[in-house]
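pasting for ref
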Amino acid sequence: MQLETYISDLLYRYDCVTVPQLGAFLTNRVSAKLHESTHTFYPPKKVLSFNEQLQNNDGLLCNYMAEIEKIPYQVAVEKVAKQVRAIKSYLIEGETITLQNIGELLLNAEGKILFEPSYNVNYLTDAFGLSHFNAEAVQREVYKETVEAIEAKAPIVLTPEKRSSNWLKYAAAAVILLGLSGFVVTNYYNSQIEQHNQIAHEQANEQLETKVQEATFVISNPLPAATLTIEKQTGNYHVVAGAFRVEDNSTKKVKQLREEGYKARKIGVNRYGLHEVVYGSYDNRRDAINAMYSIRKASNPDAWLLVKQLD
């Protein structure tokens, strides 16, 4: 199945790969760890999981398929949908679907899809080339008994050394005298500087007041007032260009559409955590529908209308 190859390729670069109408494969980074009983070191990795609730097409898988197979995007969407229908039919018949390097899918008694991940591949590129390995436990020798025996035979006695402390007294007195004299000199120097600065500050204020009183300002040719016109898009009808898992991709899409002449912008993150990009927003539903049909005919057959009140 070619679909599993595309999913596996995307899992190296993205944390979520959605298969439309089937579910999303998610990755969660796990740090390196040591198994205490087996003394096995395991490198960091991405752990796979599956969420059946995330089925809306975010364009990631279909765009990748279209790029690899050199086919139109809509053809890729139909091919994915065909393979998903086949997977669901096998699951209903009670079979287990094995996706190479990804895991196994099967239905439980309630009709929900269960996922058992594969541990053959580590999708964390930072851990490329790393594998688990076993290490022998470090045997540490204890020398406590030997040290106690040596101390019993040759005890070590520490005695304080007797020294004359008279010269220390004189030195301490000299330090105190030097400190006091330095303190007095410093205070006198600081007071002189402060007095000088105060006199200079008063003289500067007198000169400034004189200049202000003598100055007369006359504006004969005032500049015209500047008028800025900022266009802000409003409306609850939005023609959607796409929804992106990575915010940088949505920013690139907005830049591309604006270069093509659209009033594109981002309108926030939807409930699935995807950054939505729109060609434009409209107050009137009919204007939005007309714009959507024009965009579908011109460049993007998957453009669709979203009715949403923005904050």
